[in-house]
Amino acid sequence: MKTIRVENLSVAYRGKIALQHVNLELSAGKLTGIVGPNGAGKSTLMKGILQLIKTQSGKIFYGEEPINNQRQKIAYVEQRQDIDLSFPIDVLGVVVFGTYPHLKIFQRPGKQEKKLAAECLEKVGLSEFSDRQISELSGGQLQRVFIARALAQQAEWILLDEPFAGIDATSEKIIIDLLKELRDEGKSIVIVHHDLHKVTDYFDEVILLNKGLIASGPVAQTYTTKNMEKTYGSEIAQTMRVGGVDFAT
């Protein structure tokens, strides 16, 4: 499995630094969380990796190749607020979109692609919703549909931007259990995440950001009080500890 390597990534919006000189390697076959305070550059890092935004500097590699040469091997699930839920498309149609990177120009999805999409919907437990309009789904169901789309893309990596925002605890558990299952089957998964209580339960590795890379690596080595003080400030980190956040020692 190939890693994703970030070299000297910097991003600015309207002259203000959003991310500065990030050097990072994302481990393959892991469930990795991107954590940091609001405005720390978490979503910016993900979009910068995918070359979805203009960067000031930086190179991104998939294995030893520039990431743009391997873009179809990486699926991206954007924040729900960025999705036009009024678009008239049913659930199966959304998942079929995942097959497009493997089609030739002007080629339409056929029976094989629709069969694959149906299998991916079954994988995420939503076969009975295939004919529903996406506007009729709950937030948790919608996230699972987009995970199915990533599976239909036959992506090796799945990058999700705050997939648990605005969904109930039951749906969150269904989704994280699904993502852990996909990791165990060999997928590499990266999640922008904000609930610090869940980091040790959810992730194998964690990336701590605050407009630059604070630390990254296995949760047991990286998610420490010292690193969280660097990321959030000593007073906030102490408050989080009192509030029951389980940092590594």
Report on this model:
One of its GO terms (molecular function) is ATP binding. Residues 4-236 form the ABC transporter domain. This protein has one domain (4-242): Rossmann fold, CATH 3.40.50.300. Helix content is 33%, strand content 24%. The chain has 9 helices and 10 strands.
Quick take:
This protein is of the alpha/beta class and 249 residues long.
Radius of gyration: 18 Å
Can you identify the CATH superfamily? P-loop containing nucleotide triphosphate hydrolases
Structural class: alpha/beta
Q: What's the order of the H and E elements?
A: EEEHEEEHHHEHEHEEHHH
CATH architecture: 3-Layer(aba) Sandwich
Instruction: Tell me the overall shape.
Output: globular
The overall number of domains is 1
Strands ordered across the widest β-sheet = 6-7-8-3-9-10
CATH class: Alpha Beta
| Helical segment count | 9
The residue ranges in which pLDDT falls below 50 over 5 or more consecutive positions are: none
Bin the strand percentage: 15-25%
The proportion of residues forming helix, as a percent range, comes to 25-40%
Largest sheet: 6 strands, mixed
Q: According to CATH, what is the topology? A: Rossmann fold
Distance between the termini: 30 Å
Averaged pLDDT:
89
The beta-strand count equals: 10
